[in-house]
Write a structure and sequence with these properties.
By secondary structure, the protein is α/β, with parallel strands linked by helices. Strands 3-2-1-12-13-7 form a 6-stranded parallel β-sheet, sandwiched between helices. Strands 16, 17, 18, 19, 22 and 25 form a 6-stranded antiparallel β-sheet that branches. A 4-stranded antiparallel β-sheet has the order 5-4-6-8. Bound molecules: 5'-O-[(L-methionyl)-sulphamoyl]adenosine (MSP). 5'-O-[(L-methionyl)-sulphamoyl]adenosine binds next to strand 1, helix 1, helix 7 and strand 12.
C-alpha cells in the first residue's frame, strides 16, 4: 500500500469560492478518490489563507474584524466543498493555533541558524499576489498577473537568505526532472532561476500590518503572507499526531499556474533551509478563462460560472472541468460548451447506456449461471475494459484527467455499439436464442459494474447510482474493475434519468425536441414515445407540415459533432442544406444518392454553426436509427402524406 498526501492551495478569504478554486479542489478530490480506489493510504488537505494586508482591508471595508470576516469566508469554503462532495481529510486555517505554533517554531529555527537577517529593501509590490516583482517580470509598469499598478515599498524587514539556495535548486530541478510537472512549468522555474535570485522579505512591521503571525524573535513584526501560507502543508501534518504520522515524506502539491514561483522557488528553498524534507512533486494546472460564445453571455464571471453547478448538477460540473481542461494548459469555459458536453457525453453516451442496458437486464434477468459460450464480441468488451483501465491508470499518474476520461468514454462507446450489434431485444423474441441473450446481458451487467467503479472519482453520484442499481457485488476497489469474470446476470433495477438532457431552448437546437433530438437520442430507451403522448390533433394541423421526398447529393460530418451530418439535398428543382442527427448510425458516403423524406417547411435553425433547412425523418428504436426511404422510386420533390 503506498501513501499519498495531496494538498490544494489554501485559498484567500477575501472573496468567496469561485470556479477557479473549485477546479483545483475538484481535481485534487478526483485524484484522491482514485488513489483510495487503488487501495492507497490517502490524506487530502485543503484550507484557507487568512492573514495579510488585503484581507485586513476587505474586512475593514465590511466593518468587521479580520477574524470575523475570515470565519465567515472559511465557513463558506467548507460548505461549498461539502456540497460538491469533496472528500478532504482536513481543512486547515492559518489563524488556527496549531498552524501558528509550527510557523513560529520554523521561524525561530531559521533565525537561530542565521538564515534570517534584518535589512532594508525597496521594490515594486503587488497586493494581489502579495509579492515583489523584479524589473524583468514587470510588464508596462504593471503586475503581469493582475494588470494593476504596483506599489513601491521600501522598509526595514526580516529577510530569508533565499539567494544562497539558487544553485542548489537548479541542481535539484536538473537531477529530479519530475519534481515540477508538467515540464513547461519546470522550465518556467528554471527560467526564473536564470536571473539572480533575491532574498525573500518575510515580515511586515506591526505599525503597518497587524493581521499576521508575530515573529517569535521580534514582536514588532508579523510574518509575511507566503512564509505563513506555504507552511500550512507542513503544519497540518506536523501537529496531527498518530493520524498524520509518516505522511510528510509523501506530500505532493496541486496548484494553479499563478502561484508557481512561490511553490517552485520560495517553498523548496524554505524547506531546504529548515531541514525539512522536500515535497515529492508539484503539479501545476492552467487557468480557466470565460468563453465568449452566445449562450455564455449569461456567465459574466467566475462566480456566476460556478453557480452552474447548482443549475446542472455537481457531477456534470465536475465532469466538465476534468474533461475539458488539458492538464497544464489553459481552458475556456462557456455555458454552451458545458451543456454540449452534458448532452453528448453524459445524457447521450453514458445516460443512455445505463438506461438501455439496465432496462434490458431487468427484463431478461436474473440468471444464476450463464452457460452460453463467450463470443468474439463479448471478448472485445472485456479487452476494451482492460485497455480503458490501463490507460486510466497511466493517465492518472500524470494528472491527465482528460485522457483518463477519454479512455472510459471509448469503452462506453464500444458497449453502446455492442448493444446495437448484439440487439438483445431481437434475441429476446426467439426462445432458441435465449442462451445468447443471457451471455449478452451478463456482459452488459459486467460493463455497468466496471463503470460503477472506474467512474467513482469523476462522477461520484452517478457511479453510486449505477452500483446501487446493479446491487454491486464486492468492495469498491479498482482491482474489482474487470470485465469477463461474471458468470451470472444479477437482479438489476432500471436506471433512468441519470443525466437528463438539457434543452438548449433554440426550437431546433441540438438537444431540443426538434431535429437534434432524433439523432441525438437515437440510442433511445423508448422515452420519445412517452414524450409524444399528448392529445390528438386535427388533420388541419397535420396538413401544415409539408413532407417531401428529397435526394441526398452530398453528405459530410459537422466538425466537432459526433451526431450531426451536413447534407446537401435536392427537393424538386431546389437544392438546400440540411443537418441531420444520424452520424452515429450512417456514414456520410452511405447516404449520397439516396432518397429520404423531409419536413420541408420548417423554419431554418442553426446547429453547431450550420444552418439547417428542414428535417430528415427517421425511426428509432432501442438504439437502431432507420431513415425513412421509399418503397418505389418517385422523383425528388414529391409530396408525402
Ligand atoms: N492564498 C494563496 C495560495 C497560498 S498556497 C500556500 C492564493 N489563494 S487564491 O485564493 O488566490 O487561490 C489561487 C488558486 O485558485 C490558483 O492557484 C488555482 O488553484 C485556483 N484558481 C483561481 N482562479 C483560477 C482560474 N481562473 N482557473 C484555474 N484555477 C484558478 O493564491
Amino acid at each position: 500500500m503506498s501513501t499519498f498526501y495531496l494538498t490544494t492551495p489554501i485559498y484567500y478569504v477575501n472573496a468567496r469560492p469561485h470556479l477557479g478554486h473549485a477546479c483545483t479542489t475538484i481535481m485534487a478530490d478526483a485524484m484522491c478518490r482514485y488513489r483510495r480506489l487503488r487501495g492507497d493510504r490517502v490524506f487530502f488537505l485543503t484550507g484557507t489563507d487568512e492573514h495579510g494586508e488585503r484581507i485586513a482591508q476587505v474586512a475593514a471595508a465590511a466593518g468587521k474584524s479580520p477574524q470575523a470576516y475570515a470565519d465567515e469566508i472559511a465557513a463558506a469554503y467548507r460548505e461549498t466543498w461539502r456540497r460538491l462532495g469533496i472528500t478532504n481529510d482536513d481543512f486547515i486555517r492559518t489563524t488556527e493555533p496549531r498552524h501558528k505554533k509550527v510557523v513560529q517554531e520554523v521561524l525561530q529555527r531559521l533565525y537561530d541558524a542565521g538564515e534570517i537577517y534584518f535589512g532594508e529593501y525597496g521594490g515594486w509590490y503587488c497586493f494581489g499576489c502579495e509579492r515583489f516583482y523584479t524589473e524583468k517580470e514587470i510588464v508596462d509598469g504593471k503586475c503581469p498577473d493582475h494588470q494593476t499598478a504596483l506599489t513601491f515599498i521600501k522598509e526595514k524587514n526580516y529577510f530569508f537568505k533565499m539567494s544562497k539556495y539558487q544553485q542548489w535548486l537548479i541542481k535539484h530541478l536538473e537531477d529530479n526532472p519530475d519534481f515540477i510537472q508538467p515540464d513547461r512549468y519546470r522550465n518556467e522555474v528554471l527560467g526564473f532561476l536564470r536571473e539572480p535570485l533575491q532574498d525573500l522579505s518575510i515580515s511586515r512591521p506591526t505599525s503597518r500590518l497587524e493581521w499576521g503571525i508575530p515573529l517569535p524573535f521580534d514582536d514588532k513584526y508579523v510574518t509575511y503572507v507566503w512564509f505563513d501560507a506555504l507552511l500550512n502543508y507542513y503544519s497540518a501534518v506536523a501537529s496531527g499526531g498518530e493520524k498524520t504520522r509518516g505522511l510528510w515524506e509523501h506530500v505532493e502539491h496541486l496548484i494553479g499556474k499563478d502561484i508557481l514561483k512561490p511553490h517552485g522557488v520560495y517553498w523548496p528553498t524554505m524547506l531546504k533551509a529548515a531541514g525539512i524534507p522536500l515535497y515529492r512533486h508539484l503539479h501545476v494546472h492552467g487557468y480557466w478563462s470565460l468563453g465568449g460564445s452566445k449562450m455564455s453571455k449569461s456567465v459574466g464571471n467566475v462566480v456566476e460560472a460556478f453557480q452552474l453547478t447548482d443549475k446542472y448538477g455537481h457531477d456534470a460540473f465536475r465532469y466538465f472541468l476534468l474533461r475539458e481542461m488539458n492538464f497544464g494548459l489553459d481552458a475556456s469555459f462557456s455555458e454552451e460548451a458545458f451543456v454540449d458536453r452534458l448532452n453528448a457525453d453524459l445524457a447521450n453516451d453514458l445516460g443512455n447506456l445505463a438506461s438501455r442496458a439496465s432496462t434490458l437486464i431487468a427484463a431478461g434477468g436474473p440468471v444464476a449461471q450463464v452457460t452460453a459460450p463467450v463470443e468474439a464480441a463479448d471478448r472485445a468488451i472485456a479487452t476494451g475494459a482492460a485497455e480503458a483501465r490501463a490507460t486510466l491508470e497511466q493517465a492518472m499518474e500524470e494528472f491527465a484527467f482528460q485522457k483518463a476520461l477519454g479512455s472510459i468514454w471509448a469503452f462506453i462507446g464500444a458497449v453502446n455499439r455492442y448493444v446495437d450489434t448484439s440487439a438483445p431485444w431481437a434475441l429476446a423474441k426467439d426462445p432458441a436464442k435465449r442462451p445468447r441473450l443471457e451471455r449478452v446481458l451478463c456482459t452488459l451487467a459486467d460493463s455497468l459494474g466496471f463503470l460503477g467503479v472506474v467512474l467513482e472519482p469523476f462522477l461520484p453520484d452517478a457511479a453510486r447510482k449505477i452500483r446501487e442499481a446493479i446491487g454491486a457485488p464486492g468492495p469498491l476497489a479498482l482491482d474489482a474493475a474487470v470485465v469477463g469474470r461474471l458468470a451470472s446476470v444479477p437482479a438489476v433495477r432500471k436506471i433512468s434519468g441519470l443525466f437528463p438532457r438539457v434543452d438548449t431552448k433554440s426550437p431546433q437546437g441540438e438537444g431540443s425536441k426538434g431535429e437534434g433530438s432524433k439523432g441525438e437520442g437515437s440510442k433511445g430507451e423508448g422515452s420519445k414515445g412517452e414524450e409524444s403522448g399528448g392529445g390528438k390533433i386535427p388533420i388541419a394541423d397535420f396538413q401544415k407540415v409539408e413532407l417531401r421526398v428529397a435526394e441526398v447529393l452530398a453528405a459530410e460530418r459537422v466538425p466537432k459533432s459526433k451526431k450531426l451530418l451536413k447534407l446537401s439535398i435536392r427537393v424538386g428543382e431546389e437544392t438546400r442544406t440540411l443537418v441531420a442527427g444520424v452520424a452515429e448510425s450512417y456514414e456520410p458516403e452511405a447516404l449520397v444518392g439516396r432518397k429520404v423524406v423531409i419536413v420541408a417547411n420548417l423554419e431554418p435553425a442553426t446547429l453547431m454553426g450550420v444552418e439547417s433547412n428542414g428535417m430528415v425523418l427517421a425511426a428509432s428504436h432501442e438504439g437502431t436509427v432507420s431513415l425513412l426511404t421509399l418503397d418505389k422510386d418517385v422523383p425528388s420533390g414529391s409530396k408525402v402524406k
